[in-house]
Amino acid sequence: xxxxxxxDGRIEEPFRxxxxxAVLGEAVAAETATGAEYVLEAVEVHKRYGRTExxxxxxxxxxxxxxxxxxxxSGSGKSTLLRCLxxxxxxxHGEVRLEGQRLGVxxxxxxxxxxxxxxxxxxxxxxxxxxxxxxxxxxxxxALGNVMLGLTEVRGRSKDEAREIAQAMLDRVGLAxxxxxxxxxxxxxxxxxxxxARALVMNPKVMLFDxxxxxxxxxxxxxxxAVMEExxxxxxxxxxxxxxxxxARRVASRVLMMDGGEIIxxxxxxxxxxxxxxxxxxxxxxxxx
Length: 289
Hints:
It contains 11 helices and 12 strands. A 6-stranded mixed β-sheet has the order 8-9-10-3-11-12, sandwiched between helices. A 4-stranded antiparallel β-sheet has the order 2-1-4-5, covered by helices on one side. It starts with 12 loop residues before the first helix and ends with a helix. Helix content is 38%, strand content 22%. By secondary structure, the protein is α/β, with parallel strands linked by helices.
């Protein structure tokens, strides 16, 4: 993926935060050293479906430029956590914060809290990019149309401007030549790269990936991971639910282990894979590594 000028040769705002990883790295170091607020944070998040408590007071945060990989068995709450962070599911108790601001609710007089109108929620969601297991592309739209949609419907960009920005983003994920193809005409890996472009084009402050390679044939996994690794090198803040152990070892700044709706381990990749503290983590690594 290479930086491309858009329109008159200037780099459009959706790409500026990806351009200088060295400068961003210095900012991340300064932010971490001073204990600055997280870009995205979960604070004592609880989520229940009927009688089943899926999340049991989950708290963690991600600093700018961090890549946090979340591992764990099926049913441990990983995907539900990401859906809560992306404001696709309301939390039953606790808070989701973006740059210190509480999301998804309006606080009124007397401490009363109410859900936000859908239009306001959509604007808040647009600050957080989400990539799903199953791509979730609109089958009646081309790759270009899928990537343009959020720009026109949420950001209010003109069609001409949205088309120009979307074309540049498809180029960044290696799909410029497939822009007029419909999802059914693309491989699984290509569809997932379109989904990544669709999220990135909104210029999110953080990207969430929910097992983005789990629905792909093995030979297609590498092309999606390559895009994600490039984003990490460029300084994108990311939270990735994955079973790709190699990716977590190479790319993550921290690796988290979830089990039973809780985070039971949070360590550097070397510590997590080399000397995990929790016995459940050891058993999980032995089973999947």
